[in-house]
Amino acid sequence: MESNASNPPKLGVIDSLNDAPISFFHLRAAFTAGMGFFTDAYDLFIIGSALVYIKPEWHLGDTQIAFLGSISLVAAFLGAFIFGRLADVVGRKRIYGMEALLMVIGGLACAFAPSFLWLLVFRVILGIGIGGDYPMSAVLMAEYANAKKRGALTSLVFGMQGLGLAFGPVVALTLEASGLPPDSIWRIMLGIGALPPLAVLYLRRTMPESPRYKALVRGDIDEAAKDMATYSSGQVTSKVEKKFKPSRISLGQMLSNPKYLILILGTGGAWFLNDYAFYGNAISTPEILKLVAPNSSNITGSAWALMIFAIFAIPGYLASIFFMDAVGHKRLQMIGFGVMAAAFAAIALVPGITDEVVPFLLLYGVSFFFIEFGPNCTTFVMPAEVFPTSIRTTGHGMAAGIGKFGAFVGTFVFPYISAAGGVKGAMLFSAGVSVLGVILTKLTLPEPSGKTLEEIGGEHHALSSDAVVLPTASV
Question: Which residue has the higher pLDDT, 273 or 199?
């Protein structure tokens, strides 16, 4: 596309990426990243079904059950911080795939765990890999995406979590109906989680470096342009005539800047609140359904869980993919938190809801729909947008780590809150958490929808400076 008076010249590979229409290379990047999130969801939530069989076999107490259900989330907290920072310091490509390898090793090791303590250790290894996958996959997808559909593409990666959520109950139902011994059922449940990351390990290791990181942080604009021309099969091409000085923000500068601290508070705090409600409810779904219908069988509980995920959660993910950019990322997060609060409060306060399975499942399902069509997707997307390139995975890793700590808190304390206050008490507490999510989002976060990453991160000034000669670009 030749530049002319009506078609002003572009700033090379960055603007080519911002303007590129959705193409096969976007979908390939989404699949490569998304299979990690399929695994993340499966591994984190299948433990709830596996514990039904592990508990009587190893005679575990409530505290041991709580640790097994939540230890991967503590490890994910560490993994998100570690991998997030490393990706900004040494580059995305150098470590992309290492977190998937940890998920493979951890998943296989869990399947052969000989004791409670060993299973705990292997769940830690698995959790570190899961935590590392959050900043790596989110930021890489956001940095490959165009400006108009960045929310949709990044949500597409995260939306694979929905398939992982639904796949867990399918596996549980199949194994429970197979007649296999309990010891084999839970081991197969946990071991299956190693297969999806193994399938994309090669794709991750051969994916080129993020063009934005290469251009804006390392200053290798020519190499970034060549990489993208090859990876996109010619969909993103550009000529660069002159380079500009790359920019790096140190960790000390980041943590001493009030602007970035507020963004960490907003992204991490909202993620913490969402994950408390989401993981606390989702991992405890079998136990919650037992409280509502104490005489139901394990197979019935798994079937109900599958219905909730298939009828409500997966459509919520799809709605985020198709409508997030139109609604606005910040606005959708506030809407989601608001409806979650209303649904949880209704379950807690409307007489008779927790005594009837159908009304309970409907309201519980609505809460799941708006968790997905709301903060569960937006808290993943927004940290990949609001920070500058040189601290983007660091910021996302911090937000994800804080979020996973919220998931740990929710998973660990939810059974105790349920035991003390029943389903109503647990739901009322989740409603209060969701109200805090609305307030925090409103006060701390910008609206990134429709803007380029460079505009949001304040890097567009460098790109439009005299240090860069405007090149001809074709998209």
Answer: 273
3-state SS assignment for residue 366: helix
Calculate the CA 373 to chain-centre distance. Answer: 13
Which of these, 344, 88, 342, 117, lies nearest to 209 by C-alpha position?
A: 88
Contacts with 299 (C-beta within 8 Å, 6 or more apart), sequence order? 173, 176, 177
Amino acid at 412: F
Number of C-beta neighbours around residue 164 at 10 A: 25
Amino acid (one-letter) located at 18: N
Distance of CA 120 to the CA centre of its chain: 23
pLDDT tens readout for residues 409-428 = 877 777 677 777 777 788 88
Structure tokens at 434: 């969701």
16, 22, 28, 33 alpha-carbon torsion, rounded to 10°: 80
Indicate the pTM of the whole model. Answer: 0.85
Give the CA-trace dihedral at 155, 160, 166, 168, to 10 degrees.
-140
125-176: per-residue pLDDT in tens? Answer: 999 999 999 999 999 999 999 999 999 999 999 888 878 877 887 888 888 8
Task: Tell me how far apart the 2 most distant CA atoms of the chain are, in Å.
Answer: 76
- Which range is least confidently modeled, 197-211, 334-348, 374-388? 197-211
DSSP letters of 141-186? HHHHS-STTHHHHHHHHHHHHHHHHHHHHHHHHHHHTTT--HHHHH
Strand partners, 69: none
DSSP secondary structure string for all residues of 303-355 = HHHHHHIIIIIHHHHHHHHHHHHHH-HHHHHHHHHHHHHHHHHHHHHSTTGGG
Q: Coil, strand, or helix at residue 34?
A: helix
Q: For the chain, what is the radius of gyration of the CA atoms?
A: 22
pLDDT of residue 10: 45
Structure-block tokens of residue 35: 């299979």
Calculate the average pLDDT of the chain: 84
Give the Å distances, CA to CA, from 10 to 3, 244, 474: 8, 15, 9
**What confidence score (pLDDT) does residue 336 get?**
96
* pLDDT band with cut points at 50, 70 and 90 for residue 232: confident
